[in-house]
Amino acid sequence: MDKQLFELAERLGRSLKESGRIIATAESCTGGWIAEAITEIPGSSAWFDRGFVSYSNAAKIQMLDVNPKTLEQYGAVSTETVAEMVAGALAHSDATTAIAVSGIAGPDGGSSAQPVGTVYIAWKNKGEEAVVIKKQFSGNRHQIRAQTVKIAIEGCCEEGRHSAI
Questions:
Q1: Is the pTM of this model over 0.85?
Q2: Rg of the Cα trace of the chain?
């Protein structure tokens, strides 16, 4: 893991530990990479509960309670889907905070409406509304996924993003 990502995950861990919060992840296009970065930090078991890798639509429905109608109407790569994913991660864990991501890492799968590199990231604290952003990353599959992981962890560290963190 690169130094910058390690430092971000370490910063997130300190913040969560100090506030007594626990995090879970719900990942599609990153395939567990966010959870991997978090668990690279020694002592992360004190503030990381679990990660859901829900790459398929069936997994999103079964593991995270994403409504099949949401997937049908908006698709897996959408604000609506990641909002349901992040809520599902909280509902199916002991976490107080969650991150969810879904996107098109490529090299195939893009369209004119949603080109390769389109990623939605959601953050949510229990009892609060989800914050969802849409990003358009560039590069190859690895670079798109790496940028997603960085922004997902970084966003959880941003002051004001989550009042409790």
A1: yes
A2: 15
Reduced to 3 states (helix: H, G, I; strand: E, B; else coil), residue 108 is: coil
Distance of CA 130 to the CA centre of its chain: 12
Mean pLDDT of each 10-residue bin along the chain, 165 residues long: 93 94 98 98 97 98 98 98 98 98 96 96 96 97 97 82 42
Q: Is 160 left (phi over 0), alpha (psi -120 to 50) or beta?
A: left
Q: Is 148 buried (19+), middle (13-18) or exposed (0-12) by CB count in 10 A?
A: buried
Whole-angstrom distance, CA of residue 154 vs CA of residue 144: 15
Closest alpha carbon to 95 in 40, 31, 19: 19
> Out of 3.40.50.80, 3.90.950.20, 3.30.1330.40, 3.40.50.1110, which CATH number does the structure's domain 3-157 have?
3.90.950.20
Q: Which residue has the tokens 């997902």?
A: 152
